[in-house]
Amino acid sequence: MKNSVHKPLSINTLQFQNILKLFNSSLPKLEAKIRIVKAILMLGIAVPVWVATEGIAPQLVRAYTATGDIVIDRLSEETYQNMLTRAEAAARAAAQRTFDQDILITEVSVIVSGQNYGAIAPILELRVSRQQWRNRPDPKVWAKYFKTARSLLQFDSSVSQQQPVPQPETAPAPASPRNPNQ
Question: Which of 5, 15, 87, 154 has the fewest beta carbons under 10 Å from its own?
Answer without folding.
Answer: 5
